[in-house]
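Bug #77: duplicate submission created two jobs. Keeping one. Sequence:
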Amino acid sequence: MANTKLKVGDHAPNFKLRGVITKPEVKRVDVQLSDYAGTHNLIIAFHPFAFTAT
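Kept job's structure:
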């Protein structure tokens, strides 16, 4: 992906990342923005290592 600078109100470029679902059991899933675009309102927040077990 190129060095893209987004402004408030811009559409986010499509991306894929590994996420964690914690309920009802913990499991890792691949999430792609285009899977949800146009069907849900999304809030994207990044919390590096916030929920990482030590």
